[in-house]
Structure to design on (1420 residues):
């Protein structure tokens, strides 16, 4: 790892902090910063630096950082940008090795600012100093405690969610919003322009924080794709990471030589990277923090079967719908559970899932029924719905439920319907760290994320299996020869060369021979083994079938002769002027299914493999999925499971099951090839013909684009 | 229309209301009901009825409804279910023609309750009485005012959103939640078991309410599909309707004879019905009311190009993302706008869209920049983002923005980031009826709904064009003959019969002849015109191509002879034991695109037509769309525009544009056929071969299922 985290220690547990640019003027940000640090109750030494000197918050103001006594290991700099490099130099000479640059006016303002930023970086590199920022609002730790932001009070309540952000404004909003939503933050890290420390660097120190239970990330990009994946994967095994990745639509369309290239794009790369890293992706800010509370406070469910407990039908139906829409199921109760519920509830209550206790439900019925549901081995988690009860108090129900929930080993999530009338219940649940949401839909979404997290934790995490029978040297030589051959037209590899590369990685291909006459066709047919397919080969006839230029399943020399003649006859009838190269002879594969497999090199995350439905439709139907390459076996299976093309391989209607195993192996091998040779900018096997179970899969057509940049 | 709304007048503007079951015991619901009616400040006469007599709320309690004086035209009944029929009878005899049955204990509790409910209905029918309920929480009108619910106070604040609900509990939740979210209700109608008055009945009286600007519906189903569509369509031209339809996943899988049947299902029918009706469908409760506020308070945008005004980069990126994710675009400003913004903002501010005024943005800059953006002719609407400003007050910004927004003819929506620090701004915006949301994502979703609504209002609303050249009688006779023919096996129509039905509706078909020998094949080929296709016809050979059993593009008698022999040769090689009917001869169409067109009879909404990608993949890829049949031309175009199969018809890569016009006509004709003959339970043309522009489209294969129930 490039940045050993020990250099980051002064940021996360400083012994002494100096504020360069502390101000006594209450309208200045330098005042807010000083106030927040003092009021945060930070236990280390606090120093203020300002050439004006004097005194503030009962502490002396030093004119220069050189004058500041020990202990001191962190500077927070908030002075006009042009003065920052000099201040940084003073800090470095004072022996400081960590600084937070809160000042704006750097790269975000144009080339002049960018030059200032470079100057800061070069000073830092010269002295082995680490920098957070510039153009950030600093760091906040509610447990240490430490507050180096300049935001107006109050800061966030202490909690267990860490927030790491590329945007300072979002930090300010989240601090305020968290308070209203009733959850606290453990840490907040505003990264600003990331001249040095980036989002990946702070993952390890944050996951090590004992008060942090969930990491939330607001990302505009990642600094280094593969390093992020590695660090985030390491982190997410210990604690969940949720990311809101913005800038989804800014990438625009790229010109691509293949379907794979056209379909890849930044979003699919992020999707594949996050999946490998175990990063849960939120679509909206609210979703991110909805999920964070559930992940921080609930045990993981053992499956996706959930129970719903309600005192009214409508919210129960809404909840059942929302659970299914979020990929969860309604649990089927054991007979034992039915019996217990029947004893607790009136005869007209619904004992099926959702359990509707009716409007007359008492506080005791809520608590006892919840206990019964939790005890049912078929139930993996429970959503309890509390509509504002006509005559009863939601607060009393909350008080009765809380001890039951706290002793449960299963997640219980509350849907509290209403607003003013349920405030007491809301406060009880929040104080008890039980996630509550205003409507069943949000509660269902939180339960689904808990299930996703639980599944991630038990996912097969074996590394990508690398085949040793491949011939790396052969591909290397073929590519060197291609690159060195000045007669190569463009950067698309000839078909036979591409087929040879596949052969070197043991991806089965289907050779093609070009016959000039019927005798040659019969000879090739014999070599390739019967049955064979004949196809017209003419640059003027793109749609071979349409002119009767394809003959399938020719099983002997007589049929080949007849077929050859008929093809030429048909082609000449259809297009008398067409230039005809000859007739292609290919072994005819038994019936099978056609799929597409491809790979591209993503600028951010490197090799990226694709699987899905092929043919002309591939770009329109988008039945494709992506994984980082080389891929793990689990990822290969996921690509198959998450596309219709992959599901269909298991058989569909009249279609018999196809050789899914062979496709899985080819995916792994092509992924390995893409990982080994970044200069193979795009590869696409389309179609890959998948035969029936046990009979393999064959690359019928392949397309590769070379780019020496790779 | 079955129920002329004048019979509903007593519900919505009663002259006098009697509460049957009023109670002096404060823990009883009959007390809450009396209290709410009195405290609602209802201006008509209020009467209490209870056999115990006495006095409450300074009014006499009548022992029997017969004793209640005039004016009286509405009864609200809240007594135990078994006593309701008798009370209803008393009301009827007293001359009442409208009653709200709040009591529970009816159909929702089982057969005994259902019988009681039937008894109520028969009394009502005998006396020409209208009923709301039973098992509901009644009616509420904040402007009349009138409150016949028994819910604990406070009721909802007066507002402009009407809420019509199949669930009483959801009503209670929404009343309370609306208050917290800062919007009011005009009316609330809890429909309960709908023994008489249903959701469709109350649309017309609600849209007529001058205080209602938006109708919101919580639906578990609709009572009569086509009547709902008609009434809702009529309503939604006047005022927007948003519906949350639950029970999406309860329908289960139906056994179907065709792809169309398997794909149809309740959800697609609702989707098609809501689209025709102009009903906006919300996925979650929060979404419904988020949208309701925007629709109630904002003018419709003239297009989908939006501007974003922010004082920080991160929220701006989030907003831009969210706009695109919701199908909106970032407006491109005029040079004039750039010039004006440049004068107002510092040089490093971003004058592109999103406009980032930087953290230093003043109250005046917010107001002036917003004014500039609204004036830009390229801007259809604006999202203003207010993160909690470090040192400034969001309240002051709100006060400055409000007059600018109020004079704008374009929608302006506020994303207020944070919680406690923005409360003052929240209150200002709510009081001024300007929609504000906590994050840019929800604000973007609201802007998108405004655009959708604006597009609905200008949508071509011509009725389904009905072709007069069709031969209705021919189809009638064919179906009668089929139904009467005891030798008909099952209910699937023979292919030739199905083709004749299509012919009668002028849907072009491609006839097939079965040749027993080469001479016959040549004769048929001549009749059908060259070129032709030959296909093996054998029950034992389902995959004709795979055995070399298909010969395409045969252009003369010689080729047909050669092809016929080769097919038989191949078939015998492949499956020596196969029983062979002969060889099918069909005219060979020029190259084209293949699509699927189908229709089913939906239990709820009647005839439903489908269009999309055909072939074996149709069920897996689900590239299909549905419309009510017969469909309007606008709907036919929408089916083409909303599927990949339809977009592809305009040409894609090497694929030339196909005859979209022909497909549109066939869709309309098939829709008319499905509408004319409900006994055609399922129809499917798969494939419909679409030739190049101007050359038409042909049903190559068709499947029809007959069901006399239809």
């Amino acid at each position: 790892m490039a940045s050993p985290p020990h250099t980051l220690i002064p940021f996360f547990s400083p012994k002494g902090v100096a504020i360069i640019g502390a101000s006594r003027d209450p309208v200045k940000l330098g005042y807010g910063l000083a106030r927040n640090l003092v009021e945060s109750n930070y236990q280390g030494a606090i120093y203020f630096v300002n050439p004006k000197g004097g005194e503030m918050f009962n502490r002396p103001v030093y004119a220069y950082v050189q004058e500041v006594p020990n202990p001191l290991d962190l500077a927070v700099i908030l002075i006009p940008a042009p003065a920052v490099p000099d201040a940084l130099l003073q800090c470095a000479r004072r022996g400081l090795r960590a600084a937070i640059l809160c000042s704006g006016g750097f790269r975000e303002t144009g080339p002049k600012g960018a030059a200032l930023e470079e100057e800061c970086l070069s000073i830092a590199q010269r002295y082995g100093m680490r920098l957070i920022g510039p153009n950030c609002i600093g760091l906040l730790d509610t447990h240490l405690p430490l507050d180096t932001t300049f935001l107006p009070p109050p800061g966030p309540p202490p909690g267990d969610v860490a927030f790491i952000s590329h945007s300072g404004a979002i930090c300010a909003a989240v601090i305020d919003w968290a308070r209203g939503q009733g959850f606290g933050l453990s840490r907040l890290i505003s990264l600003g322009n990331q001249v040095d420390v980036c989002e990946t660097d702070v993952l390890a120190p944050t996951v090590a924080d004992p008060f942090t239970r969930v990491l939330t990330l607001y990302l505009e990009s990642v600094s280094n794709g593969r390093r992020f994946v590695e660090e985030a994967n390491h982190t997410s095994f210990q604690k969940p990471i949720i990311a809101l990745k913005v800038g989804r639509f800014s990438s625009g369309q790229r010109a691509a030589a293949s379907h794979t290239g056209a379909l890849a794009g930044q979003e699919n790369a992020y999707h594949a990277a996050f999946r490998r890293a175990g990063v849960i992706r939120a679509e909206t800010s609210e979703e991110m923090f909805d999920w964070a509370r559930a992940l921080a406070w609930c045990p993981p469910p053992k499956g996706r079967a959930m129970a719903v407990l309600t005192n009214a039908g409508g919210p129960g139906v809404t909840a059942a719908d929302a659970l299914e829409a979020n990929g969860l199921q309604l649990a089927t109760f054991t007979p034992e559970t039915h019996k217990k519920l029947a004893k607790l509830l009136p005869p007209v209550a619904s004992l099926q899932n959702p359990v509707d206790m009716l409007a007359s439900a008492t506080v005791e019925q809520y608590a006892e029924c919840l206990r019964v549901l939790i005890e049912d081995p078929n139930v993996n988690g429970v959503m309890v719905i509390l509509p504002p009860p006509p005559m009863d108090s939601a607060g009393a129900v909350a008080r009765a439920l809380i001890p039951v929930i706290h002793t449960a080993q299963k997640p219980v999530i509350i849907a509290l319907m209403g607003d003013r009338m349920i405030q007491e219940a809301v406060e009880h649940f929040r104080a008890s760290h039980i996630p509550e949401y205003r409507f069943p839909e949000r509660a269902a979404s939180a339960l689904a994320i808990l299930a996703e997290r639980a599944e991630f934790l038990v996912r097969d995490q074996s590394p990508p299996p690398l085949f040793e029978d491949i011939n790396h040297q052969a591909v290397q030589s073929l590519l060197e020869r291609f690159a060195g051959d000045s007669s190569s037209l463009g950067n698309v590899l000839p078909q036979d060369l591409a087929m040879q590369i596949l052969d070197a990685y043991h991806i089965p291909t289907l050779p093609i021979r070009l016959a000039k006459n019927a005798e040659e066709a019969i000879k090739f047919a014999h070599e390739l083994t019967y049955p064979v397919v004949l196809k017209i080969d003419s640059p003027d006839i793109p749609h071979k079938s349409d002119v009767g230029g394809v003959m399938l399943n020719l099983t002997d020399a007589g049929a080949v002769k007849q077929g050859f003649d008929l093809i030429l006859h048909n082609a000449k009838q259809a297009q008398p002027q067409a230039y005809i190269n000859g007739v292609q002879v290919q072994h005819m594969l038994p019936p099978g299914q056609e799929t597409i497999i491809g790979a591209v090199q993503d600028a951010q995350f490197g090799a990226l493999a694709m699987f899905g439905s092929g043919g002309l439709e591939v770009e329109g139907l988008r039945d494709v999925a992506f994984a980082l390459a080389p891929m793990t076996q689990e990822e290969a299976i996921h690509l198959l499971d998450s596309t219709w093309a992959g599901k269909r391989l298991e058989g569909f209607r009249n279609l018999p099951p196809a050789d899914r195993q062979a496709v899985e192996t080819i995916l792994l091998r092509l992924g390995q090839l893409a990982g080994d040779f970044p200069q193979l900018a795009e590869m696409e096997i389309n179609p890959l013909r998948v035969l029936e179970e046990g009979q393999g899969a064959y690359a019928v057509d392949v397309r590769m684009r070379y780019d020496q940049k790779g």
In short: Chain B touches chain A through 104 residues (CB under 8 Å). Residues 251-255 of chain B have pLDDT under 50 and may be disordered. The longest strand of chain B covers residues 680-690.
